[in-house]
Design brief:
The chain is an alpha/beta fold and 91 residues long. The chain has 3 helices and 3 strands.
Length: 91
């Protein structure tokens, strides 16, 4: 997506059933020309999730936009010298 994009809806497309249904609903309401699917890639997902995201977006007929920083969550923890726990994240 760029600054000139004018989508009416951007759906966080995570590869789960709920985001697929949310995309279906947005497409039904706004049409495929007005909906963008956004996949935030952690670079640490199961290969089947990546397959589903690509195939799911194609089946829905909406453009898929992938954003990725390049590091896995474990690399971020190591780079930030942060010990992972359930008490918070370095982001």
């Amino acid at each position: 997506m760029n600054a000139q994009s004018s989508f009416r809806a951007v759906v966080s497309f995570s590869g789960g059933a709920q985001s697929f249904v949310a995309a279906q609903r947005a497409l039904a309401r706004f049409g495929s020309e007005n909906v963008a699917l956004l996949f935030a890639d952690t670079s640490a997902e199961d290969p089947d999730l990546y397959r589903f995201v690509v195939q799911g977006a194609a089946a829905l007929g909406a453009p898929l936009h992938v954003v990725r920083e390049g590091r896995t969550p474990q690399q971020v923890l190591r780079d930030r010298r942060f010990m992972g726990s359930g008490r918070g994240a370095p982001c």
